[in-house]
Specification:
This protein has 70 residues and is α+β, with helices and mostly antiparallel strands. 20% of the residues lie in helices and 27% in strands. It is globular, with a radius of gyration of 13 Å. The N and C termini lie far apart (27 Å).
């Protein structure tokens, strides 16, 4: 699953290097705590919740991004 999602994560919602593992129906990934910018944390979510959050960042057909990253 990580390999499959990894192909679609480039500049979308989560980069490949932030994905850590998937085990026991749980996805682990790194995230940045903006309240404490020096801290990087690890979050573990059930697969279904991870996919739900990921899909919130997928644009519907015929929509375009209004800004581009570096």
């Amino acid at each position: 699953m990580l390999d499959y999602l990894g192909r679609y994560t480039h500049r979308v919602a989560i980069t490949n290097n932030r994905l850590i593992a998937m085990a026991d129906e749980e996805v682990r990934f790194r995230w940045k705590d903006y309240r404490h910018p020096q801290r990087r944390k690890i979050m573990a979510l059930p697969v279904g919740e991870f996919i739900r959050r990921f899909l919130l960042h997928v644009l519907p057909d015929r929509f375009r991004r209004s800004r581009r990253g570096p």
